[in-house]
Amino acid sequence: MIKVFKNNAAPQLKSIYSSLFCLLFLILTTHFFAQEDGVVVNQFVPLVILDAASDPYSFDFNDDGIVEFVFLVQDLTGDTMIGGLPATYAGAGSVMDAVNGRPAGSISEGSNVFDLMNLNLGEQVSSSLDFGTDDSFSLAIDLVINSSVIGLVPYQYGTFLGSSGYLGAEFLIGTETHYGWIEIGVSADAGLITLYSYGYESNPNTSPIIINHLGVNEMGGEGISIVNYGNTLTVELSNELVGGELRIFSLSGTELHNVKLEDIENVVDLNHFDTGVYIVTAPSKQGLTSQKIFVH
Predict the structure, then answer these.
(1) CA-to-CA dists, residue 67 to 46, 82, 127, angstroms
(2) From the CB of residue 289, how many other CB atoms can be counted at a distance below 10 Å?
(3) Where are the domains of the chain?
(4) Which pTM value belongs to this model?
(5) In the CATH hierarchy, which top-level class contains the domain 217-295?
């Protein structure tokens, strides 16, 4: 028997569609990671922001209860010697302790200190890199040394000082080696650490892993590519999908922005959005596709 809906059924259908849409967002926000060929990508929500008053933050790539790294900020004050003469120093240091993980970097010539690598989006983390074996590493140090002879002398150190970037890492899940990255920012005075996102290869002994924020679109994404780089969204479409609509939502499901995709390549400026995580939906050959994006 064929059922025919009368006009008074429209509100009921609207309610059903609304419920289904809410269910979609529940699925998206509950399964808050994306995978591409075994690569898991995640955002820190809310952002992890640490200063000297914060407790150390323990980071675990795969939530197995085994900590890879511990991040902390320290106030640094004390006495030292310069050229055999007493001096004092004051400032801050952003530190990362290594537990089950080893960071990528290289030995500095002359000082014999292991300098962390500050990698860029699109670069690779692989077994060919050198990984530090120390228990603790400096992300950034900013000090002022006060000497009665030479006066005030600034001392700065660290590849993440006053910048953000990606830290490559090697770690174990059980007895198997995995590779990953953490997106980190440190303030110019070394007094603030911000953790933005991270990713890792879930398949053991697999490298390289490319640093990016891309993942498999949960509802299929044939014919469309959504690239979140910085505060720009680049959407590339096949010809048959041109004219579709891209929509940006908060994690609670509120629509915040929509734009018609009028070209094969479309660029959406995200600078007017607050820092945080959002969900983008767009058409694909299989129907609706979705992807998590991040705004700095």
Answers:
(1) 19, 38, 21
(2) 22
(3) 39-210, 217-295
(4) 0.65
(5) mainly beta
